[in-house]
Amino acid sequence: MKSTGVIRRVDDLGRIVIPKEIRNNMRIKSGEGLEIFTDDECLILKKFSPIENLESLATKYTEAIYQVVKHNIIVTDLNKVIAISGNLKKKYLNNNISPFVERSIERRDSFVERQKKEVEIIENVKEYGYYSFSSIVLNGDILGSVIILSTEIPLIQVEEKMAEILSKLISGSISI
């Protein structure tokens, strides 16, 4: 565990302020949930991701769809890639999502790019390809995204819809 050298006092209501620099570095946004753990005399705060608990299920879904469409199937939470099937798996899994994907999730976007275009899905890694994007939304809360990416050939209409279908399957598997 790394010390930040920052000391904060607990107020009368039991609150502490997490310094802005730490919130920015950890990508913690206002209103975002944090899980609280204890370990001996340590208090541990971890960003909460309801979709992260579905990692194995999301992996099974991506692998099943990959067998049919043969394109990269990517599932993210609000911060990183949590499941992927395809040739980009080693490169993308557990890496932070790019600002482009983050903004698209925040806007609850669903779209298809039919022209071969440069896209940055994880930070500082650009690919050229065709893609379908769908935000994962449950009860009005944004949880992540599903992206189908083809670096070689355009997506056909059925493949374009698969990102939307998978996002609905995943959101239907979550209980908050």
Description of the structure:
The chain has 176 residues and is α+β, with helices and mostly antiparallel strands. It is built from five helices and seven strands. It has helices spanning 20-25, 55-69, 89-92, 99-106, 157-172; strands at residues 34-39, 42-47, 72-76, 81-85, 110-122, 125-138, 141-150. The strands form two sheets. It has a five-stranded antiparallel β-sheet, sandwiched between helices. The chain has a two-stranded antiparallel ribbon with strand order 1-2. Strand 3 (72-76) and strand 4 form a beta hairpin. Helix 2 (55-69) runs antiparallel to helix 5 (157-172). The longest helix is centred in the last third of the chain and has 16 residues, at 157-172. The radius of gyration is 18 Å and the shape is elongated.
